[in-house]
Records
---
Amino acid sequence: MVKKWLHLTELGGDPWVLPIWAAVHDAIKNGVVKEIPTELSEQGLYISVRLNFLPRIVSRINTEVKELYEIMKTHQPKHEFCEGIEGVSFDIDNNLKYQLLIDIDSLLFELNSVCELKGQFFEQLHTLANKPMPKKNAGLSVKHMLDAAKQDSSWFVTLDNHRNFFSHKGAPYLAVDISSCPGAADVLIMKENIKSFRDESKFLRLSDINNIVQGFAASKLVIQEYLRGLFLQA
């Protein structure tokens, strides 16, 4: 039995939820809505903790990709594959390779997890504000709201599809696209050990993940302002 322990300080993280709570507390003080339920309060904390994960994972991926690109500069013509021509696989340190795969997999999982938590938060805040949901499904409501704000929501579907595959159906493999000049290399995350990249459903690019991250980042303020508005208009 745990009889003595330490709690670790949880400060200085992502402040996304704070303006929403400020609007909620103002509405409570004005007698417009009831007190925040414990479950809703915990949901806000869950989101904050996971938002704190994301920049750290991205930073690790950037460092690992930079190291990978430096190593790839030493490849020889014999290592190059193309349609109909088998090259010789290029050896890299397994720790670097698997750490990069772990972090890519983790980033997709955490982004998807935050989106799901935000969907639940979205629904619970509508209930607290006694406002109707724009859509019955919480996740679809967030997408609907982004579409209404003329924000690109395509990243939302792309993220969900790839995360579901790697979480439930398969595992990621690595390759590097060197089709363009050396400075334009792109990491390829394969869904199987493929010999042709004509079918883009079988892999995604690191640049695709960057688009997902940028889409997610752009959505934060839109969703925050919408949720604040539930209580500012109360």
Note: The first strand starts at residue 173 and ends at 177.
---
Amino acid sequence: MKDFLKKVLLFSVLVFAVVELFIRFSHLTIDVPQREITVEGIQKYIPNQSGYWSNASHKWIINKYGWPVEAPDSMKNLITLIGDSHIENFMNSSNCQPSYFLKEMNPTYNFLQMGRSGASLIEYLEFSKYAQKEYSPIQQIIFVKENDFPESIRNVSVKDDVTQIDIKTGKIFKGKMRSPRLKKIIYNVKTIYYFKDKVKFKTLKKIVKK
């Protein structure tokens, strides 16, 4: 019985390893960049990372400042573009970014995208304060969607992973990263992340259909 269990375990490990290598080298799932929280409570990415988008269609880049997309050549005449996943824009290559097109249309200015998926309006304002201190931009553009407003208000619903404000007291609650160690394991073991993503997609598909 012990020999049988050992063989089953060994076979399972080998199958898992083969599946892991296949998913990893076929780039069937995205590489997820690692985040950090600054002393100011800003959630941004660890600088100088890169990885593949799903199916290796292109590579995403985290620049030396810890923001998505390549950094501008100069920080003079800087305009920041602040927002959520639409500004983070991992789903598109470097030559299909807001900063790229704006630079082509306005070559005398430089553009820095400061985006993070799931960020709230209050978080955008914190990004803006951070940018003013670190980069001294001449202008800042904040891209806002309707749901960014209620997400920012702690009195509407508590979300610990995003920065929120209590409108009764005026107190700001900085966002925290949920289960960072567990997420790191899930993102690095591609087999787990691939099947987790598939289950999530099927669930979302059912909800949308309903």
Note: The chain has a mean pLDDT of 84.
---
Amino acid sequence: MRKLFITLLMPAFILVILSGCGTSQNTSTTAAETNNSKEGNVDMLFDAPSFSRISSKELEEKMGKPEDVEEWKFNDKYDTKTYIYDSGNVEFMVIDDTVVRFSYYPVDQKIKDINDLFPMFGIQAGENIKKVADTGMAVKYHTVSDKIGEFYTLFDSSEEKTLSVIKVTYDLRYFE
């Protein structure tokens, strides 16, 4: 139930943060900038692109049986299932039997550099990537690659770069 609450209210919370913190547009972000980790040796935590728009059956083949599946209505119109793994730290949003979003809720996970995020999740940014928001506490990219429509991260602390949530959206049409 806690995750359902977080899943329902997180988009509203994100909008408040992005609008209230002076969202800046930055269309000069290039694929090379986002694909280059300053450290060069970042361990991949999760291969996020491999889950892009797969079926719930394929999801279970990759991840195993979920700890829980919550059924609910997204945006009051889409029958949605959230597949929950890793004690609630990993979630997959499934609409029309297709994974449309991956969410990761890390525990005390820090990064050294923002450019470490994509390699951590196995993401290779495409040429059309655009940074659409960067408040210091939240960063959002659109048109990340041919498999990823949006990448969003929220930090608990901008100084320490402690991750609060990562959301990788594969199909944006449900979120418009």
Note: Residues 131 and 141 are 4 Å apart (CA to CA).
---
Amino acid sequence: MAEINFQCKRTVVSTKAVKPGTFYSLSVLDRSMEKNVIRIIYYYHFPSKWDAGGPTKKLRESFSELLSSYPIVTGRLQKNPDGHWMIKCNDAGVRWIEARAKGSVDEWLQMADRVQELKLTYREDMFHKPYFWSTFYVQVTEFEGGGLAIGLSCSHLLADAACATMLVKAWADTTLLQKILTPPLFQPLPSSKLSNETTTHNPFNSLIDHYQSAMSMNQTPPISDPENVKYTSVTFAFSSENMKRCMADARTNGSTTPTPFEALGALLWVCVSNVKGKINELLNMSICLDMRNVLGLDKGFFGNVMVFNKVCGEGLNEVGLVRAARAIADVVGQMGNKEVMDLIEWLGSGSGGEKLTHQLPILNGPDLVCVNWDSLAVYAAMFEVRVPPIRVSYYFERVIGEGQILILSSPEGEGTLSRWAMVTLPEDQAVRLCGENLILRYSPTIMMGAPEKNNHTLG
């Protein structure tokens, strides 16, 4: 495995100063994700015309230009009088790390596992004085044999995966086009009080129940200590044709065809439950969905809009694709506008808000977690003409308990049914997952982290 040599760490600031005294409050959905971190790594084949250090210098300059439109990213955390985090936009900048790696980016992708890949995304824990702590980190790694990796890590307090992806896309547009095609919008979540609502309703729904349960979980130890469990990540790439087969197999007679997320989530839910020794039932699973469309938010909205809900696997009479996909679809159907608005209101009220201040929920565990990020424009970030990313990896941390499934779009582009699934499990279980007959029925390409199975199509 190529050795990574860190060249320097610096702070990149905006080319334009923000107005003094500018603050941004964080929403209750933001604050619910304080314990989590997003990491993304973009890999590129950059043109051979670039000399060593050339791409990094160009990217650093355009990133500084970009930050003029993202004052939250260059700000620092402070507590407001209610004890909640807010951002003081003080132009403190973003931590920027420059690194070199031997070999080529293609050689790296043939060999890298989870531990190695995370070395491409620099991260520091929050200081005891958060006012000096950078919430965003960028690492640019040039491969001596050709290629480049751009790693972004950020606190989920400020941004979810959609925001982080939008930030990188805006950076690419700034580099290539000298303008941002989708400017960010910094605004509060919609008001939970609907002016046209004339009837009363019970605000306690499955979303609130799930968040209440997550808060109570904080009083008991997690299923497993992430410090003592060696997790590894395996990526399964499914073609459009094989996704069609999976969706058809997950459909009941006369029912609506499941979405790619529902079908692929069901496939991996069944297989992960199997490798964990479940018999005649499935693991309980927590699904995580982006609520931008549900809440009618502009695609430029900057903030966390990811919401979790529980899918019960215990007691299922059937554990095949059809029943699992139906269970996921039923829970997705419970996550409408009214239910999400009730959750936001509850989190902001005395019943949920006070608990949120003192008992932050661990929402990405200890159940198996399945996250739908297949609508993200993962491969749209081009810093050079006709040079899209050759691969993009996402990490949603911390991983605890049973493990994690991330459903992503593929390099085939928008509008296709092809999907990638990045699965993180304890190492021995991840290896067994790669040999599950039900998964192999759909002929995925398996990449990264599976010993002796990297980058091969298994059938």
Note: Residues 247 and 259 are 7 Å apart (CA to CA).
